[in-house]
Amino acid sequence: MEHGGKMPYWEGQSYGVIPPGTNPKNGKPNTVRLYSIASSRYGDDMTGTTTSLCVRRATYWCPELKADDPAKKGICSNFLCDAKPGDELKLTGPSGKVMLIPEKDPNVDLIMVATGTGIAPYRSFIRRLFVEKTPFGQVYKGLAWLFLGVANSDALLYDDEWQEVLKANPDTFRLDYALSREQTNVDGGKMYIQDKVKEYADEVFERMDSGAHMYFCGLKGMMPGITEMLEGVSPRRASSGRRSSRSGRRRASGMSRCTRSDIPFSIVGLSCASHRLRVDASREPRSLHAEKGGIMDVRCCVGWGLSRL
Length: 309
Description:
- By secondary structure, this protein is of the alpha/beta class.
- It contains seven helices and twelve strands.
- The protein has two domains: 14-97 and 269-299, Beta Barrel (Elongation Factor Tu (Ef-tu), domain 3); 110-266, Rossmann fold, CATH 3.40.50.
- It has helices at 75-81, 120-131, 135-139, 159-168, 193-199, 201-209, 223-246; strands at 14-18, 33-36, 61-62, 67-68, 88-95, 110-115, 144-150, 173-179, 213-219, 266-267, 274-278, 301-307.
- The chain starts with 13 loop residues before the first strand and ends with a strand.
């Protein structure tokens, strides 16, 4: 989307979209819906004048009709997914708390955990690090490790981009998928995001001990499983650390800081400022990102940032 530089933002923030028309339930104009920004602060072309949103089309499959019920489809997500180059959009924002890369140390590891459209801020990160010619990206030598959980391979977001980055940067980028309907965990159950992270729990904790930053973003329902997994692994790690300390090796430290059950989070807010933007027909079609998928309540999208303090 082209905004002419009038709506600058930071990674992790959202734009509000006000779809045209009225609410059939009350006859009032449609209200704002929030969508995560999937571009870096530099926009899509390093000019700071464009933005990409991560949008999943919200539909409802009617078992009686054996088809999508048009009366129950998401008004705003379908409006965005059906938008054409040149269409005008009414936006608010940017709003919400930011998710930033610690730029003091170019060797810092970044562990990014996402479900569904929670991938949006990590696309911002990865573009800054590996795609765009940014000052920090040019000196970055750490590991950017992405965990993404979705139902099946058809629902993977930006997979073509991740594969290109992985091919070009095999030493500094890692990618792991949790496909709940296609993969099984070590116990034979469905492979959820916490199960995939658990497979690498020792390495994740070791990198956290060395100063890595770990981020979580997606539906808030994923966090109980994540925190339960981390808390389950923590005692074993702590015990191992005590044994290492007695034998003269470096003791693992700070585990309680990254396994708290009270990890803070906040639902993004709204901004009263609004602008009318135009989808730029001169740019590539993907300047307005629309991803197919099932029902997605964007109001429940919550972002967490977790790092060792």
